[in-house]
C-alpha cells in the first residue's frame, strides 16, 4: 500500500477548497493531498460531504490556572474532542509562574505525562527579576511570551509597567518570538471599577461598565508602539472591539509586526442576551460586548483584519463563577470542545469562506508561534494533524460528552450544525466522533526551531 491512511471529503485549506478531495498520511505526516480518485492505503475513511481541515491550534489555553482543577489531563481531552490538535498553554499557573528555563522544563515534564494532543508553551517574567530570564526561556523552547498591562494578581498575573514592558520587548526581539499582551489599561479600569462600586451596581451590568472599550484601545496603542520602538513582534491576545482590529491593521500597513487575536466568545456571545442570562458564567476579561459589537467583529474577520481565533480556555470550578456579585467571580470560560464547530457555524451562517477556519485556527497560529515547520496546514511533510466535521447537528451541552472537567459552559443550548467526527494527531485517531481515544502522554511538546528564519508577520 502507498499510504497508511487516506481520508476523503471536502478538503479545506487556508487559501483553497478541494470539493472532491483527499488527504493521504504516511508515518504520521501528510504524504499527499489531491482531488478525485484517492491513492491506495491500509486504511480508508470516506467522509463524503464532510469537511477535512488542518487540526486547530488553540493559541490561548489556561490548563493550570486553578490548582487541582483541570490540568492537561482534561484540557487536552477537551481539545481532542473539539478538533484541536495543539494547544498553546499560558504561563500563569497557580503556584508556579512560568518565568525561567527551570519552570519551562518542569511544565514540559508535567504536561508530557498527561497530554493527549500536542502542546506548546508561553513564557513570562517575574516583575522583580525583569527580562533577565527571557533568553533562557527561548532556549528552553517557549513559543511566545505573555504579559499584561492590567494586574489581576501581583504575583500570578501581574501588571507589567510600561518601562519594564519595553525592556522585555527589547529582550525578546532578538529571539524572533512574539510578545503577547493582555490589553487593558490598569489605571483606567481601576477608576471605572471604583465608579461602578460607588453606584452600588453588582449585577451582570457591572462587568462591562467596569471595563469600557477605551481601556482596551489605550492599552493596544501602548503595546503596538512598544513593538514599533523595540522591533519586537507585538501581539494583542484578545480584543473585543472592532476599533482594535483597525488599529492593528494600520500598524501592519506601516510595516510593523502587529497582530491581534479574537476569542471565540467575542464572536458568539453578547451582553444583552448571554451575559444578562449567565451572569458570572459569562464573565471574561475583556468583557463580552453588545450584539452590535459582535457583528462588527465578524465584519473585521471577513475583511481579513483578524490574525488568530482562540478560546482563552479556562475551566474554573462552578463555585468560582456563580457569585451574585458579578465582579467577585473569576474571569474566563471553557471553550476547547466548542471553538471549531462554533467558528464554522458562524462562517456558514454569514456565507463567509470556510478557508477562514483553516487560516485563523491553523495556518496563522502555526506561523505566529513559529511552529509551521511541523504544524498548521494539510501539506506534504507536515504533521498529519486533521480535524473532520460532518453535518450532524447537536444542541451543545458541556457536560454531556464527559470530556470536560466542569459541567457548565456558556455555550450550552447552542445548536451546532457541523460537529467533530474525527480528530487525528500526527496521523493517529485521537477522537472518533464519540470517544476520546488518545491516551495521556501521547501528546508531544512542540517548540520553534532554535534558529528562526526571517519572515513577515501574519495578517
Q: What's the short story on this structure?
A:
The chain has 13 helices and 19 strands. The protein has 459 residues and is α/β, with parallel strands linked by helices. Helix 2 packs parallel to helix 3 (134-140) and helix 7 packs parallel to helix 8 (242-253).
The biggest beta sheet is recorded as: 8 strands, parallel
The residue-averaged pLDDT reads 96
Shape descriptor reads globular
Count, helices: 13
Cα Rg: 21 Å
Query: What percent of the residues sit in helical stretches (DSSP H or I)?
Result: 25-40%
Question: How widely separated are the two ends?
Answer: 40 Å
Q: Report strand order across the widest sheet.
A: 5-6-9-10-11-12-13-14
The poorly predicted ranges are none
Count of individual beta strands: 19
Strand content: 15-25%
- Structural class comes to alpha/beta
Amino acid at each position: 500500500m502507498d499510504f497508511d491512511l487516506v481520508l476523503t471529503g471536502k478538503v479545506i485549506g487556508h487559501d483553497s477548497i478541494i470539493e472532491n478531495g483527499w488527504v493521504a498520511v504516511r508515518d504520521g505526516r501528510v504524504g499527499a493531498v489531491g482531488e478525485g480518485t484517492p491513492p491506495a492505503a491500509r486504511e480508508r475513511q470516506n467522509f463524503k460531504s464532510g469537511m477535512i481541515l488542518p487540526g486547530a491550534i488553540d493559541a490561548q489555553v489556561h490548563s493550570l490556572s486553578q490548582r487541582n482543577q483541570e490540568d492537561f489531563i482534561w484540557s487536552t481531552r477537551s481539545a481532542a474532542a473539539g478538533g484541536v490538535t495543539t494547544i498553546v498553554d499560558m504561563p500563569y499557573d497557580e503556584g508556579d509562574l512560568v518565568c525561567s528555563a527551570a519552570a519551562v522544563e518542569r511544565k514540559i515534564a508535567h504536561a508530557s505525562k498527561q497530554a493527549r494532543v500536542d502542546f506548546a508553551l508561553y513564557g513570562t517574567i517575574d516583575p522583580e527579576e525583569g527580562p533577565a530570564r527571557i533568553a533562557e526561556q527561548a532556549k528552553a523552547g517557549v513559543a511566545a511570551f505573555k504579559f499584561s498591562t492590567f494586574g489581576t494578581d501581583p504575583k500570578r498575573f501581574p501588571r507589567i509597567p510600561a518601562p519594564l514592558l519595553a525592556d522585555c520587548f527589547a529582550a525578546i526581539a532578538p529571539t524572533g518570538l512574539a510578545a503577547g499582551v493582555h490589553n487593558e489599561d490598569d489605571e483606567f479600569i481601576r477608576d471605572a471599577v471604583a465608579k461602578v462600586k460607588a453606584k452600588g451596581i453588582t449585577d451582570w451590568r457591572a462587568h462591562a461598565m467596569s471595563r469600557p472599550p477605551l481601556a482596551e484601545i489605550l492599552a493596544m496603542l501602548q503595546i503596538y508602539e512598544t513593538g514599533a520602538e523595540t522591533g519586537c513582534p507585538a501581539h494583542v491576545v484578545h480584543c473585543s472591539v472592532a476599533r482594535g482590529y483597525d488599529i492593528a491593521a494600520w500598524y501592519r500597513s506601516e510595516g510593523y509586526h502587529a497582530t491581534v487575536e479574537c476569542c471565540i466568545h467575542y464572536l458568539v456571545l453578547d451582553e444583552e442576551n448571554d451575559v444578562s442570562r449567565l451572569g458570572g458564567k459569562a464573565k471574561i476579561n475583556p468583557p463580552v460586548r453588545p450584539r452590535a459589537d459582535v457583528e462588527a467583529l465578524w465584519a473585521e474577520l471577513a475583511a481579513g483584519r483578524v490574525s488568530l481565533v482562540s478560546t482563552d480556555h479556562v475551566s474554573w470550578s462552578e463555585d468560582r463563577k456563580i457569585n451574585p456579585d458579578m465582579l467577585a467571580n473569576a474571569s474566563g470560560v471553557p471553550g476547547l470542545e466548542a471553538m471549531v464547530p462554533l467558528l464554522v457555524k458562524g462562517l456558514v451562517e454569514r456565507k463567509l469562506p470556510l478557508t477562514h477556519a483553516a487560516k485563523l485556527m491553523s495556518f496563522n497560529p502555526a506561523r505566529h508561534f513559529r511552529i509551521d515547520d511541523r504544524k498548521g496546514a494539510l501539506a506534504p511533510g507536515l504533521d498529519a494533524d486533521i480535524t473532520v466535521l460532518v453535518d450532524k447537528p447537536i444542541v451543545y451541552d458541556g457536560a454531556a460528552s464527559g470530556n470536560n472537567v466542569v459541567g457548565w459552559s456558556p455555550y450550552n443550548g447552542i445548536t451546532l450544525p457541523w460537529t467533530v467526527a474525527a480528530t487525528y494527531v500526527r496521523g493517529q485517531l485521537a477522537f472518533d466522533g464519540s470517544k476520546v481515544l488518545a491516551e495521556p502522554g501521547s501528546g508531544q511538546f512542540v517548540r520553534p526551531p532554535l534558529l528562526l528564519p526571517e519572515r513577515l508577520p501574519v495578517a
